[in-house]
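We now fix the convention by which a protein and its fold are recorded. Here is one such record, which you should read through line by line:

>
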Amino acid sequence: MKEVWSDKKRTIFGLPLSFTKYILDEERLFIRSGVFTKVEDEIWLHRIMDITLRQTFRQRIDRVGTIH
C-alpha cells in the first residue's frame, strides 16, 4: 500500500484530538478508529460517485472541511 495522504479527525479548533485516522492510497480510503476496540473501514475509490467539500471560512483558514 503506497500511502498518498493521511490525517487524523479534527474536532475542537481544528486540533486532532480524536482516535480516528484517515489513510488514502491510490485505490482505497481507510478509516481507522478506536482505542481499545479497533474498527477499520475500507472504501474502494472506484465506488465513489459524487464528492462535495464543504468549508466554512474558519475551516478554510485551518485547512480542514467536511466531505459528503
In short: The helical segments are 57-62. Residues 57-62 form the longest helix (6 residues). The first strand starts at residue 3 and ends at 8.
